[in-house]
Write a structure and sequence with these properties.
- By secondary structure, this protein is mainly beta.
- The chain contains three helices and 26 strands.
- The strands form four sheets. Strands 4, 5, 7, 8, 9, 10, 11, 12, 13, 15, 18 and 19 form a twelve-stranded mixed β-sheet that branches. Strands 1, 2, 17, 21, 24 and 26 form a six-stranded antiparallel β-sheet that branches. A six-stranded mixed β-sheet has the order 3-16-20-25-22-23.
- A hairpin with a 2-residue loop joins strand 22 and strand 23.
- The two termini are 15 Å apart.
Length: 358
């Protein structure tokens, strides 16, 4: 039969939420071992004349030493009232020449377009850098963020470094302010957002092994298969899912159940492998839904076989669910497929996925 990727429009967008009480299955997921350079603090740069993590004041936003495959995610808002610049720098701190291969890069600015950063990432935007010992380069273009109001900006970058390099994220008004002697912007211990580094930005949900009985048509006839993604509520968080972030310039770690627990895996790659089996004598049609949350909602991006679609499921749109997938099965047939799902920047990260028999 078939698996159909449905459009985020018309009757496929629903106003109803999936009730929290129905989210009754906690999965155990796996994460890769690669570093995730994650920047969200300070979130409101320049708000009330504070949070000025700029090179002009002697600060960088984030700085980490990494090697091998690595990913960068950042999300901030410009409250300075001026045009703000953002750029990512790489420096070869190794004793020999290093090759840095940037394979993916995406960026967007504006409240309504966070999905563009994810779509740009999946478009590739690769570039190679060869750095002698002690040499440096800019890993990304210079981005300009308007100073009109509170303009958000966000991005994702994936790269591989053949040896140790230092990755530094800068904000500034003028590039001449960057001297290379900047220090970390001090962490406010009352903050609910964080900047630092974690491990494991690629998260695998193997539903074949975790929920084989729940994905049979005979089981779906009794109840839908429902599970959460990116929910920081310890009652619903999947085992090993939320990426702990070592907070820059401190000995603290932001993690579920900890003193600093407001994490949400925005920008992480949630890779799902699922198999449905029709163990009945009738043809079956199964629909897949993804929902945001009753708080501010979020933007969902799904990559199915290289085709990328997105839906804004938040207060502004009034939509909370996207019926995104249709699976048709003949009697006795099984269908296995995979997809990536990413919660783009802004809003609350908590999400729910549901598979329901028509």
């Amino acid at each position: 039969m078939s698996v159909t990727f449905l459009e985020p429009s018309g009757s496929n967008l629903l106003t109803a939420d999936i009730p929290q009480t129905s989210r009754n299955l906690k999965l155990t997921v796996t994460r890769n071992n690669a570093p995730w350079i994650n920047s969200n603090y300070p979130e409101a740069v320049g708000a009330y004349g504070t949070n000025l993590s700029l090179a002009e004041y002697g600060y960088y936003v984030n700085q980490q030493r990494v090697k091998g495959d690595a990913e960068i995610f950042y999300s901030h808002t410009n409250h300075t009232g001026k045009t703000l610049k953002f750029r990512i720098h790489i420096y070869n701190c190794s004793a020999s020449t290093v090759t840095v291969k940037r394979t993916n890069m995406g960026y967007s600015s504006g409240w309504t377009t966070p999905a563009d950063a994810v779509k740009g990432y999946f478009a590739g935007n690769g570039q190679n850098f060869t750095l002698a010992s002690g040499a440096s380069a800019w890993l990304t273009p210079e981005y300009s963020i308007t100073g009109n109001g509170n303009t958000p900006f966000t991005g994702m970058v994936h790269f591989n470094a053949s040896d140790d390099i230092i990755v530094t994220e800068y904000m500034y008004y003028n590039a001449s302010a960057v001297k290379g002697t900047e220090k970390a912007y001090p962490f406010n211990t009352n903050s609910k957002v964080y900047t630092g580094i974690g491990t494991g930005y690629f998260i695998t949900f193997n539903h074949k092994s975790a929920a084989a009985d729940r994905t049979k048509v005979s089981s779906l006839a009794k109840q839908p298969y429902i599970y959460t993604v990116n929910d920081p509520d310890i009652n619903f968080t999947n085992n090993n899912e939320m990426v702990p972030i070592k907070i820059l310039g401190t000995n603290e770690t932001a993690q579920v159940g900890g003193s600093y627990g407001n994490i949400g895996n925005w920008g992480a790659h949630n890779y799902h492998v699922i198999k449905f089996t029709n163990d009945t004598s009738q043809k079956a049609v199964i629909y897949g839904y993804i929902a945001s949350n009753l708080n501010s909602g979020n933007t969902q991006v799904i990559n199915r076989g290289g085709v990328i679609k997105s839906a804004r499921l938040n207060r502004d749109t009034g939509k909370r669910q996207w019926k995104w997938c249709k699976v048709e099965l003949n009697p006795g047939q099984s269908e296995e497929f995979d997809f990536q799902q990413i919660v783009a920047s802004y809003g609350d990260a908590a999400s729910v996925m549901k598979w329901e028999l028509e």
